[in-house]
Amino acid sequence: MMVLGSGEYHRFEAAGRPFVYLVPSAAVFALDDAADAVLRALAQRGRTRDELVGELSDLFPRSELDETISELERVRAIGDVHVPDKPLPKFFPLMPFPLTTMVLNVTNQCNLSCTYCYEYSEDKIVDTENGKKPKFMTEETARESVEFMLKESGANRMAHLTFFGGETLMNFPVLQKTVAYARERAAELGKEVDFSLTTNATLLRPDVIEFLAENRIGVTISIDGPKEMQDKFRVFHNGAGSYDIVAPKIKELLRRHRSRPIGARVTLTSGVLDIKRIFRHLTEDIGFWEVGFAPVTTSPGRDYAISTGGMDTVLAQFSELADEFLEAAVANRHHGFSNVKDTLEEIHKGVSKAYPCGAGLGLMGVATDGDVALCHRFAGSDSHKMGDVRTGIDRNAQMAFLEKHHIADKTDCSTCWARPLCSGGCYHEAYTRYGETTRPNLHFCEWIRGWTDVCLRVYGELSERNPAYLAQFDHMESVAERAV
């Protein structure tokens, strides 16, 4: 006789009612009273269908219970306890998978000397000072990279090209020429190219700002907040802080460049954790449209590494900003906390990741010499090479990478309810922390589950209080295609 038991789901409350996030399907369901009662009963112990109906028949009609139990079985919220859980399926993307985003590292040099930088500090994986890679990409290599991108984009009409560094604008002449070349070549092929870049803002001269505005280039500024926070780690090579240099340049960029939203990216460290103050300063005082935060990627022993207690502080402040975001969204007002918006989009689309991001799949990074790596953070690393722009993607290397890094092989993740959205976390974080990209980022597990729960609650609230807000995600390209 079949005994019913709980399936794999995460229960949460929002808008005064219970919801479940169903792990196998990555779907969110609001529970009515009957469904909630069934799940609560089975969370205590397994029961046969007749036992379940008998226990709950005083509260609900039998026909309603039968229908509810069948529906919960269908969505795999409950199931036969005697049927063993199936291992995670290991499906691979059809090849050749189109390249959606190419991150072009036009230089591996920087005019700042940020203490925590993953490219230049103690945790760097590529020697950018004395290594064999050229310090600046040539115009020829950039053109070859464009041809590579357009070819590997397959049938996609739109290709995304993100300029990166080092400090990207140190190679502004090549960037300028590459934009013109890519736009011309894409038009010849019936395609379009969307351009973006990341910069530390120190080199935002008037002519640079004018170029960015005229060419509708998306801009993300790396900045850590008010003066004392920015100047703590984001310093020039002589140790001088950078805030007084970049703040007026950023304000001028925001004044002139209005064709696309300008965002800020903040690196959180042990000494820079006042998230709400940072957010207020960057949105209200400086004028950024949105702000995203990321914990520093580093070995645990560094002075600037965030402790477990520090991550608890981050989660508490993220939660407060998420509540602000919710109230703004209910009222159809803009709120620039991009971390919650990006996660809401993934929840709404039912994202269930076999891989944590598009690295090595739809996103790849190109080093200054044209070597192709699984993402921009590994650009220039021979150990993470996946071809070059002249000969194309090494499909054998790509498939070997995808086979080794599938979520099904991360046994620590197999019982985690947040795995559809996390899939083990950033490869570069894993490499820096554990020495290998295949490892899940176990040090972030509790934090990820806590943050995902916060975002699910916001999603549930919006689904009840302003579902029209969520409809905007139906026609948006994926976060992975936009993010770097």
- Largest beta sheet, briefly? 10 strands, mixed
The gross shape turns out to be globular
Number of strands: 15
Rg to the nearest angstrom?
24 Å
Structural class: alpha/beta
Strand content: 5-15%
The CATH topology of the largest domain, please? TIM Barrel
Distance between the termini: 52 Å
Total tally of structural domains: 2
Report the uncertain regions.
Answer: none
CATH superfamily heading of the largest domain: Aldolase class I
The average pLDDT is 94
- Strand sequence of the main sheet, in spatial order? 11-10-9-8-7-6-12-13-14-15
User: Which CATH C-level class of the largest domain is it?
Assistant: Alpha Beta
Q: Give the count of helical stretches.
A: 17
> What level of helicity do the residues show?
25-40%
CATH architecture of the largest domain: Alpha-Beta Barrel
Describe this structure in a few short sentences.
With 484 residues, the protein is α/β, with parallel strands linked by helices. It contains 17 helices and 15 strands. Helix 4 (139-152) runs parallel beside helix 5 (172-188).
Could you explain how this protein is built, in words?
There is one protein chain. With 484 residues, the chain is an alpha/beta fold. The chain has two domains: 77 residues, Outer Surface Protein A, domain 3, CATH 3.90.930; 306 residues, Aldolase class I (TIM Barrel), CATH 3.20.20.70. Helices cover 40% and strands 15% of the residues. The protein has 17 helices and 15 strands. The protein has a ten-stranded mixed β-sheet. Helix 4 runs parallel beside helix 5, helix 10 packs parallel to helix 15 and helix 11 crosses helix 15. It starts with a strand and ends with a helix. 41% of the residues are buried.
